[in-house]
Specification:
The protein is an alpha/beta fold and 506 residues long. Helices cover 37% and strands 17% of the residues. It folds into 3 domains: 183 residues, Ribosomal Protein S5, domain 2 (2-Layer Sandwich); 237 residues, Rossmann fold; 69 residues, Helicase, Ruva Protein, domain 3 (Orthogonal Bundle). Strands 11-14-17-10-18 form a 5-stranded parallel beta sheet. A 4-stranded mixed beta sheet has the order 1-2-4-3. The protein has a 3-stranded parallel beta sheet with strand order 5-8-9. A hairpin with a 4-residue loop joins strand 15 and strand 16. The radius of gyration is 28 Å and the shape is elongated. The termini are far apart. 43% of the residues are buried.
């Protein structure tokens, strides 16, 4: 007998249709699994056999052929376990499908890895598979209980949760229906709490730079001695960034689903905050592997990638950031395929001014030689340094400001100004287009300074030898400063403040 079920295979962030065909025929008992399966799919034979026997089903002593069509495309993952097991039960007649399920298209779309006792273990990539199921017209989808929240993000698809293989078999035969996830209190998850900016004492320029960075979607580099609050400031940036829209939440959740990470709720509207250690490899940063998976730049989608101790990262790891910073995507090429992952993020870096950290400190002497300082700072290439819109020095906090214990402006207050500035940008430039992403033509249209501002910018261009990229970045930052001030025209005062954030160039 032959049974056919619909499934899908993941390719990057998308899913492609796969038919799971199970055929039982006469002959010596054997098992053939064809269709370019990877190791995890091939091992399904042993998991499915043990799960069937331990669930009080019979394992058919026939010649079993399982085909994953189309046969010319590689199949990865353990989520084929459940459809293969159900296919065996259907083909052997151990479960009978009630009216309405005769057409395989009317069967629920199902994914899950089988434990040896028949339990359903969670799998990665459920969200792209759920989106595929909805697009293919499936009304319902069966997932392991641990994947229910993730699959429930997709609207219009009934998500059914199952604990084990017996639950799925009972549902398909009409004996005991599975409960939809919405009946299992799958409510909207509350956003996690983020650190508040009011905890920061002093650092008025750094707080201002952080606000401009969040308002315009810019990249920020902070340099200062140890203990000046660089990491503390960076950790508070998600609290002042605009919340993710519904489409952005779905895009971020899809990346985390493919990566197999469950460190954040798929319902969360807080922008991602990623802070990899400086020992991270270029593959961990950009993505890749034998089966390409998203890296840190993709996991920071619509959020923030924070690189603490920036010069301590390996030079190749930093250089791979240059292309995604400009394009907002990253392409990973392999011999068999090329996959593209989204990588639209804000880069925030922190570094010490020298190896010991105290070069230029008012009270603590620096122990580094000039050659050591130069080697340390040149670990960051000029092209990468040029991509930071805002570069500031974060000095040590004055003792008086620490002892006063006076709370600074809260994140909620700053966030209101950021949201107002973003609203002005979206009205002027189009929904979702921030100042940092403006192309030169649009920049000349929306950020053209007045006569006094243009004269100041020309003087700075000649005096400091700004590159074309630096020139445009000054204009973008000035445009954001004007938006925060609710001004339509970029003026000299906005240009002057933007020039202050170019580090040693100005």
């Amino acid at each position: 007998m032959l049974a056919r079920l619909a499934s899908a295979s993941l390719r990057g962030l998308e899913a492609e249709a796969v038919d799971v065909e199970v055929d039982l025929s006469r002959g010596m008992p054997s098992w053939s699994l064809v269709g370019l399966p990877d190791a995890a799919v091939r091992e399904a034979r042993d998991r499915v056999r043990a799960a069937l026997l331990n669930s009080n089903f019979e394992f058919p002593l026939r010649h079993i052929t399982v085909n994953l069509a189309p046969a010319d495309k590689r199949k990865d993952g353990s989520y084929f376990d459940l459809p293969v097991a159900i296919g065996l039960l259907l083909a052997s007649g151990q479960i009978r499908i009630e009216d309405g399920f005769e057409n395989p298209k009317n069967l629920p779309f199902m994914v899950g890895e089988l434990a040896l006792d028949g339990r359903l273990n969670p799998v990665s990539g459920v969200l792209p598979l759920a989106i595929f199921a909805q697009n293919q017209g499936f009304e319902s989808m069966i997932v392991p209980e641990a994947n229910a929240e993730e699959a429930s993000v997709v609207e219009g698809l009934q998500v059914l949760t199952a604990y084990n293989l017996l639950d799925v078999a009972a549902h398909l035969s009409g004996k005991r229906l599975l409960k939809p996830a919405t009946e299992l209190d799958m409510l909207l998850t509350k956003d996690e709490e983020t650190p508040d900016l009011k905890d920061v004492r002093g650092q008025h320029q750094a707080r201002r730079a952080l606000e401009i960075t969040a308002a315009g979607g810019h990249h920020l580099l902070m340099s200062g001695p140890p203990g000046s609050g660089k990491s503390m400031l960076a950790a508070r940036m998600p609290g002042i960034m605009p919340p993710l829209t519904a489409a952005q939440r779905l895009a971020v959740a899809r990346v985390y689903s493919i990566a197999g990470e469950h460190t954040r709720s798929p319902m969360s509207s807080v922008p991602p905050f990623r802070s990899p250690h400086h020992s991270a490899s270029d593959v961990a940063m950009i993505g890749g592997g034998q089966i390409p998976k998203p890296g840190e730049v993709s996991k920071a989608l619509f959020g923030m990638l924070f690189l603490d101790e920036l010069p301590e990262f390996k030079r190749p790891v930093l250089e791979v950031l240059r292309q995604p910073l400009e394009s907002g995507t990253v392409s990973i090429a392999r011999a068999a395929d090329t996959l593209t992952f989204p990588a639209e993020f804000q880069l925030v870096g922190a570094m010490n001014p020298c190896p010991c950290g105290y070069w230029g400190h008012a009270s603590k002497p620096c122990r580094c030689s000039l050659a050591q300082i130069q080697r340390y700072t040149t670990r960051i290439s000029g092209p990468l340094l040029d991509r930071f819109d805002i570069r500031i020095h974060v000095p040590p906090v004055e003792h008086q400001e620490l002892t006063q214990m006076k709370a600074g402006e809260s994140s909620a207050v700053v966030k209101k100004r950021v949201l107002a500035a973003r609203a002005r940008q979206y009205i002027r430039q189009g929904e979702g287009i921030v100042n940092a992403r403006l192309l030169p033509t649009a920049l000349e249209q929306h950020a053209k300074p007045d006569a006094e501002g243009a004269a100041l910018l020309t003087t700075a261009l000649n005096r400091f030898g700004l590159s074309a990229r630096s020139y445009h970045r000054v204009l973008k930052v000035a445009r954001t400063i004007a938006d925060l001030a609710a001004k339509n025209q970029v003026s000299a005062v906005h240009i002057a403040e933007a020039l202050q954030y170019r580090g040693d160039e100005s």
